[in-house]
Structure formats: structure tokens, C-alpha cells
Specification:
- The chain is α+β, with helices and mostly antiparallel strands.
- The chain is 18% helix and 40% strand.
- It has a 4-stranded mixed β-sheet, with helices on both faces. A 3-stranded antiparallel β-sheet has the order 1-2-3, with no helix packed on it. Strands 6-5-10 form a 3-stranded antiparallel β-sheet.
- It contains 3 helices and 10 strands, in the order βββββββαβββαα.
- 21% of the residues are buried.
- It is globular and about 60 Å long.
- The longest helix is centred in the middle third of the chain and has 13 residues.
- The protein folds into 2 domains: 36 residues, no CATH class; 135 residues, Nucleoside Triphosphate Pyrophosphohydrolase, CATH 3.90.79.10.
């Protein structure tokens, strides 16, 4: 092993950067030309700019998680997911975004929030950093959120944690954020 078993911040010199796709949407695609610190040869890398995301494993007093069923076009399938969303509101940190998403997508508020961890979805191409939370002490609230596109077809329901864990372990659920959230909470003894 060559060093501490821990990720660390590091930045290689960017010689040039070219926008390949950029609109007023929160994500963009660019091509960076890099030079490694100990070399003269340059190389190109594609970067999907992403503001980050939050994922909420909301568990009620009956040990059930609130899940969503949502169609995702790139994969051409309907996934079992957790309430989640982008960090796309200026000045809003991950916990505030998680509270907002739980209210918008599930009509719930939580009195107890536990950070589960943070991961990078695919650091070889994407800057997406995902923040996971366990929410407990749930109460139903009124919410005014107009769903559009795939979200207009989204369905939600309560699933026993034991069934959700079994589906994850059986490979019946493939949404990575849900899988990571359940495994993190389970490994930390929080479920």
C-alpha cells in the first residue's frame, strides 16, 4: 500500500478546457486537457459537471422505508428508488436539500437526521457527489410540488426494511443510490 487508506483532494494541471454541451440546465459536458504532475505528455478527459445529489432513506416507526417507483429513460426501466434530488438551489447544503426532497417527493418531514456517508457516482467521468441520509421521526406534511415528466408518473409506497434489504441482496433492485443507502445504514447498525 502506498499511503493512507483514505481518499484525498488533488488537482492535476488543466492545460485547456472546451465546453461540449452547456445550456441553462444544471449539468454540462466539457473536455479537459490535462498534464500529470510528473510528465510532459498531455491527455484528454471528458467531465460531466454535476451539482451533486442527496438521497434519503426515510424509515418509519414500523421499520418501513418510503420508496418510489420511477421510469428512467437512459436505462429504459422503472427503478425502485428513494426520495432524492439535486443540489441545484443556490446556498442550500446537503441536509437542507434532503429535507426539501423528502417533503417534495414523499410529503414527509423528519425530526431525526443521520448522515450515512458521501460517495462519488462515477469519478472517472462525473463530478457528482452523493450525500446519503437516514431520516426518522417522520410526519406527513402538506406539500406543493408540481411533478413533471417522469416524476408525474412516479409512485410511492412503504416497504418493510427486511424486504428492501432482501431485494437489494438478491440483486432485484439496481438503483445504486438505494443500494448504497441501505447497505450503509445496515452496516452501521442503524436498521
Amino acid at each position: 500500500m502506498t499511503g493512507e487508506l483514505k481518499d484525498r483532494d488533488e488537482s492535476w494541471p488543466v492545460i485547456s478546457s472546451t465546453d461540449l454541451y452547456r445550456t441553462d440546465w444544471v449539468m454540462a459536458l466539457r473536455q479537459d486537457t490535462l498534464r500529470p504532475p510528473a510528465g510532459d505528455e498531455t491527455f484528454d478527459r471528458l467531465v460531466l459537471e454535476h451539482p451533486g445529489a442527496v438521497i434519503v432513506l426515510a424509515v418509519d416507526d414500523e421499520d418501513r422505508a418510503y420508496c418510489l417507483w420511477q421510469y428512467r429513460h437512459p436505462a429504459r426501466r422503472r427503478f425502485v428508488e428513494l426520495p432524492a434530488g439535486l443540489l441545484d438551489t443556490a446556498g442550500e447544503g446537503p441536509l437542507d436539500a434532503a429535507r426539501r426532497e423528502l417533503r417534495e417527493e414523499a410529503g414527509l418531514e423528519a425530526s431525526n437526521w443521520t448522515p450515512l456517508g458521501t460517495t462519488w457516482s462515477s469519478p472517472g467521468i462525473s463530478a457528482e457527489e452523493m450525500h446519503y441520509f437516514l431520516a426518522r421521526g417522520l410526519t406527513a406534511v402538506d406539500h406543493e410540488f408540481e411533478r413533471a415528466h417522469e416524476e408525474a408518473d412516479m409512485e410511492g409506497d412503504w416497504v418493510p426494511i427486511a424486504d428492501l434489504r432482501a431485494a437489494v441482496l438478491a440483486g432485484d433492485i439496481g438503483d445504486a443510490p438505494l443500494v448504497v443507502a441501505v447497505l450503509l445504514a445496515d452496516a452501521k447498525g442503524l436498521l
